[in-house]
Write a structure and sequence with these properties.
There is one protein chain. This protein is α+β, with helices and mostly antiparallel strands. Helix content is 19%, strand content 30%. A 7-stranded antiparallel β-sheet has the order 4-5-14-10-9-7-8. Strands 23-22-19-16-15-27 form a 6-stranded parallel β-sheet. Belongs to the glycosyl hydrolases 36 family.
Length: 845
C-alpha cells in the first residue's frame, strides 16, 4: 500500500539491471538495499536509484573552499563505504514523498526535529517507529559488527528529511520550500555510509559529504571562538528582556569579587531597538512584558535601544555609581507582567501613563554630558574588569524575532507571511513558532542579506563587541515561497553572514542557536564553528512541572550529547548556560565540566553557588577543557536513557593523558509521540544501576590518546565517591546512580616505571574534570631512579596512583611534602601561581 501523500506514478528506473558498483551497498532486482549482501531496506520502489560515491559529480573542484588534501585522500580511499540514493517522478513537484524501502527489525538511532529549531534522539527498529523530520538514521548491523548511516542531503534547490509510515516504509521527503520551485529527478538526495566504529562512521561520512557538497567545512578545518575554554556569564535568565547596563555591571562585579572573573559576557535579547507594527516606527516598543511579546517585534535601527544608548562614559566607575537589587528588580518585573496581563484582559482600557511603564531603568543622565551608549559601557567594563576578553550580543538571524521593520533601516524589507512547513505540523507546540506565524517576518531582500549583517556587525565591532549569538535561525523555511525556496534563501543569508563574520568578528566570534536542521549544517557552516546542541536550559517548565524542576533536566543532556554525534562534525558543541544555584545545578555542572566546550551560567545577580563553580572554573576564569566533545558511549547509542527504566547515560571524552566517563541518570522524561511533546515518565524516575569500563573511552578519536587502547591496567577515580581503584582494561565497575544525579570517572593509564613501581596521574581531585589539569606528562629514568615530569594547570590537591612511595617531589623548583599510603594513593598540594603551569618532578626508586 502506498504511503500517505506519496506522489503517484513513479517512473521506473532507467537501468533495470542489478546495480554494479565499487560500493559495499547494492540495490537488487528484488528491491533490496543491502550492505555486503545483508538487507537493510526491502521493498524499495523501482524509481529509487543507488549510485556509488565516485559516479556522482562532486562540487569541491569548483568551490572556493576546496577540501584539504588529507580529507580528499581519506574520502577517496574509503569511497567504497559510501553510496547515494536518488529518485525520479513523472510530474514535477515542490514536495515529493517517496518510500526508499521498508525498515523492519533492525535497531537504529535517529535524530529528528521535535521543534522547528531543536532536534533530539529517538531509537527504534522499524520504519513505523521513526519520527517526523528525521535528519539521520544510524543502523546497527551486528551481522558484520558494523553500523550504517542513512543521511538525507541537500541536492540543488531541494533538501531532504525522513518521515515515518505505518507500514514500515522509510519515507523520504524531498522539498524545495516553494511551490514555484519544482523537480522530478534526483541522483544524490540521500547518502549511505558504513563503518565498523560508530564515531569513525560519522566522521568519515561527513568528510565524504563535505567533498560532495562543497558547501560547508568540517570542525577540524576551522578556528574556534576564543570563548571555547573560558568561563562566562549570559544575561538571559537574570533579566530576560529587562537587561540594562546597571544590572549587567553588577552581575560581572559579583563574579569578579568572589574570584570567578567571567572571561566573556553575553548580552542576550533585550538590548536591540525593536518595536511592533502598531507602534511609532522609530521608537522603542512600550509593550514588551507580555509572554512572547518580543517575538512580534521588528528591528528598526542597528544601534542599541534607549536603555543602553543613555549610558554615559564612566557612570559605573564612579564612587556613587547606581546600585542594583536583584530582588527588587524581579519584583518590579513581576508587577510589569501582571500589568500586561491586566491590560490584555481589559483590552487597552488602562491609562496611557500606566501602560507605558514597561521597562526598568536605573540610569539618571547627567546634564551636559554626552551619551556614550553601548560603546562606553563595553569600554568601562573592560577598564574595571580587564579579564573580560569578549563581549557578545544577541540577535536573530533575520535581525529581530520579527525581522526588520520596513521603511526604517534603508534596507528593502517586506513583511512576509510565515508558514510552518508541512513536516513540522506534528512537532511540539512552540509559542515562538506560533508568534512568528502570527506576525510574519520583516524579511530583508536576500540580495541585501550581506548588507544587513554588515550594517549590524560593523557597528557592533566598532563599539567593542567581539561576537554575536545568532538565534532564531531556522525561520527562513517559513518565508521561502517567493525566494526560490528554502535552499536558495538560506544560501543568500548564510553567505552574507559568513562574509560579515570573517570581516567583523575574526572569522569565529559567533554562537549559532535554534539552528538544528540539516539546511543550516550543510549550508551555513563554512565559517561558523560553534553552535548550541540542545534546547534551552529550562530552570522550570513554563507549562507546569509535573515533577518539580527535575523532569526537563535530563532531557537537556540527552539533546546535547546525541546531537553532538552529527553536529559536532561541523561545529564545536555548546551545551548552553545553566544557573549555579538551581536545584539541579550540580547535575548540569557535571556535564558541562566534560562537554568539551565553554562553561557559562545565567545566574541572577548575587545568587551563585561558588562552591560548585569552584569545581569548574579556575581563578583566572579559564576552565579545564577536554580535548574532544562529549558523546554517548557505544552501549548507549541504541538505548533510551530517558524512559526505558534501565539505561544510564554514559558520556566519554578525552583529556591529553587520560579519559573521562560521565555517568548520568536522566530517566524520568522524554518525547511522547502520541501527543508530539516531551512529558514526564515518573515511573522511571528512580535509581538506576549500570557498568563502566576503561573500554568505554574511545581512545582512538585523538592521536595523542590512541596508544592507551593497548594499556593493560587503569587507575579510575570516582569524583563524587572520592574513590580510587585499579581495574583491567575491560574490567567493569558497577555503579548505582540516583535520579538527576551523576558520577564522573577519570580513567588514567597505569604506566610501569620499573620492575616494582607503577604510576598513574589523576589530576586535581577538587575539579570535576580532574584529568584536564594535566597539560604535560613525561616518564623518565635516571641512575636507578624513575622520574615523572608533569605540568599542571590550576590549583588544589593533585591525586595520583603510585605503587611505591616517592623518594621526593619537587614542585616549581622546591621540595614539597606529600601524602602516600600503602594502597598507592599519592596526594600533594598545587598552589595557584597566577595562571601559569606548575612544574612537578616526582622521583621514585
Amino acid at each position: 500500500m502506498a504511503p500517505p501523500n506519496l506522489v503517484p506514478e513513479a517512473i521506473p528506473s532507467a537501468n533495470l539491471s542489478e546495480t554494479k558498483s565499487t560500493s559495499r551497498f547494492s540495490l537488487s532486482l528484488e528491491g533490496n538495499i543491502s550492505l555486503d549482501s545483508i538487507t537493510l531496506l526491502s521493498h524499495v520502489p523501482n524509481n529509487v536509484t543507488l549510485s556509488n560515491f565516485s559516479s556522482i559529480p562532486h562540487a569541491f573542484d569548483t568551490n572556493d573552499s576546496p577540501p584539504p588534501p588529507y580529507i580528499l585522500n581519506s574520502v577517496e580511499s574509503k569511497s567504497e563505504n559510501g553510496a547515494f540514493l536518488g529518485l525520479s517522478v513523472k510530474e514535477p513537484h515542490d514536495r515529493i514523498l517517496n518510500s526508499i524501502g521498508k525498515l523492519i527489525g533492525r535497531k537504529y538511532l535517529s535524530i529528528f526535529r521535535f521543534k522547528t529549531w531543536w532536534s533530539t534522539m529517538w531509537v527504534g527498529s522499524n520504519g513505523s517507529d521513526l519520527q517526523m523530520e528525521t535528519q539521520l538514521v544510524m543502523l546497527q548491523v551486528p551481522e558484520i559488527n558494523s553500523y550504517a548511516l542513512i543521511l538525507p542531503l541537500i541536492e540543488e534547490n531541494f533538501r531532504s528529511a525522513i518521515h515515518p509510515d505505518s507500514n514500515d516504509d522509510v519515507i523520504l521527503c524531498v522539498e524545495s520550500g516553494s511551490t514555484k520551485m519544482k523537480g522530478t529527478t534526483f541522483s544524490s538526495c540521500v547518502y549511505l555510509h558504513v563503518g565498523d566504529n560508530p564515531y569513525d562512521l560519522m566522521r568519515d561520512a561527513f568528510k565524504a559529504i563535505r567533498v560532495h557538497l562543497g558547501t560547508f567545512r568540517l570542525l577540524e578545518e576551522k578556528t574556534l571562538p576564543n570563548i571555547v575554554d573560558k568561563f562566562g556569564w549570559c544575561s538571559w535568565d537574570a533579566f530576560y528582556l529587562t537587561v540594562e547596563p546597571v544590572g549587567l555591571w553588577h552581575g560581572v562585579k559579583s563574579f569578579v569579587e568572589n574570584g570567578f572573573p567571567p572571561r566573556f559576557l553575553i548580552i542576550d535579547d533585550g538590548w536591540q531597538s525593536i518595536n511592533m507594527d502598531h507602534e511609532p516606527p522609530l521608537e522603542d516598543s512600550k509593550d514588551l512584558t507580555g509572554l512572547g511579546s518580543q517575538m512580534l517585534c521588528r528591528l528598526y535601527k542597528f544601534k542599541e535601544n534607549e536603555k543602553f544608548a543613555k549610558y554615559q562614559a564612566g557612570t559605573m566607575l564612579k564612587l556613587d555609581a547606581p546600585t542594583f537589587d536583584q530582588e527588587k528588580h524581579d519584583q518590579k518585573f513581576k508587577e510589569m507582567v501582571a500589568l500586561a496581563v491586566k491590560k490584555s484582559k481589559l483590552k487597552g482600557e488602562i491609562g496611557e501613563d500606566e501602560s507605558n511603564n514597561n521597562f526598568i531603568d536605573y540610569l539618571k543622565e547627567e546634564e551636559g554630558v554626552e551619551r556614550g551608549g553601548l560603546k562606553a559601557l563595553v569600554s568601562d567594563l573592560r577598564t574595571k574588569f580587564p579579564s573580560l576578553d569578549d563581549v557578545y550580543v544577541w540577535h536573530a538571524l533575520c535581525g529581530a524575532w520579527g525581522g526588520v521593520r520596513p521603511g526604517t533601516t534603508g534596507l528593502d524589507a517586506q513583511v512576509t507571511t510565515a508558514k510552518l512547513a508541512a513536516g513540522l505540523e506534528k512537532s511540539m507546540y512552540d509559542l515562538a513558532a506560533d508568534m512568528i506565524v502570527e506576525g510574519g517576518i520583516g524579511l530583508v531582500n536576500p540580495n541585501q542579506a550581506a548588507e544587513l549583517y554588515e550594517s549590524m556587525h560593523s557597528y557592533l565591532a566598532d563599539v567593542g563587541v567581539t561576537g554575536v549569538k545568532v538565534d532564531v535561525i531556522h525561520t527562513l523555511e517559513y518565508v521561502s515561497e517567493d525566494h526560490g525556496g528554502r535552499v536558495q534563501l538560506a544560501k543568500a543569508y548564510y553567505d552574507g553572514l559568513t562574509k560579515s563574520l570573517k570581516k567583523n568578528f575574526g572569522g569565529s566570534g559567533l554562537i549559532a542557536s535554534m539552528e538544528q536542521c540539516n539546511d543550516f549544517f550543510f549550508l551555513a557552516t563554512k565559517q561558523i564553528s560553534m553552535g548550541r546542541v540542545g534546547d534551552d536550559f529550562w530552570f522550570e517548565d513554563p507549562n507546569g512541572d509535573p515533577m518539580g524542576v527535575y523532569w526537563l533536566q535530563g532531557v537537556h543532556m540527552i539533546h546535547c550529547s546525541y546531537n553532538s554525534l552529527w553536529q559536532g562534525q561541523l561545529i564545536q558543541p555548546d551545551w548552553d548556560m545553566f544557573q549555579s544555584d538551581h536545584l539541579c545545578a550540580e547535575f548540569h555542572a557535571g556535564s558541562r565540566a566534560i562537554c568539551g566546550g565553554p562553561v557559562y551560567v545565567s545566574d541572577k545577580v548575587g545568587r551563585h553557588n561558588f562552591d560548585l563553580l569552584r569545581k569548574l572554573v579556575l581563578p583566572d576564569g579559564t576552565i579545564l577543557k577536554c580535548q574532544h566533545y562529549a558523546l554517548p558511549t557505544r552501549d548507549c547509542l541504541f538505548e533510551n536513557p530517558l524512559f526505558d527504566g534501565k539505561t544510564l547515560l554514559k558520556l566519554w571524552n578525552l583529556n591529553k593523558y587520560a579519559g573521562v566517563v560521565g555517568v548520568f541518570n536522566c530517566q524520568g522524561a522524554g518525547w511522547y509521540p502520541e501527543e508530539h511533546k516531551c512529558k514526564a515518565y515518573p515511573q522511571f524516575y528512580k535509581s538506576i544501576s549500570g557498568l563502566v569500563s576503561p573500554d568505554d573511552v574511545e581512545w582512538e578519536q585523538k592521536d595523542l590518546t590512541a596508544q592507551f587502547r593497548n594499556t593493560q591496567q587503569f587507575a579510575i577515580y570516582l569524583h563524587k565517591a572520592d574513590n580510587l581503584q585499579l581495574v583491567r582494561s575491560k574490567e567493569q565497575i558497577s555503579l548505582t546512580v540516583q535520579p538527576t544525579s551523576f558520577e564522573i570517572l577519570t580513567v588514567s593509564p597505569v604506566h610501569k616505571l620499573n620492575e616494582r613501581a607503577k604510576f598513574a596521574p589523576i589530576g586535581l581531585e577538587n575539579m570535576f574534570n580532574s584529568g584536564g589539569s594535566i597539560e604535560f606528562l613525561e616518564y623518565g629514568f635516571k641512575v636507578d631512579i624513575s622520574t615523572v615530569k608533569i605540568k599542571v594547570k590550576g590549583s588544589g590537591t593533585f591525586l595520583s596512583y603510585s605503587s611505591e612511595k616517592p623518594k621526593e617531589i619537587v614542585l616549581n623548583g622546591e621540595k614539597v611534602e606529600f601524602e602516600w599510603s600503602t594502597n598507592g594513593i599519592l596526594k600533594f598540594g598545587i598552589p595557584w601561581i597566577g595562571g601559569n603551569l606548575s612544574d612537578v618532578f616526582i622521583s621514585i626508586s
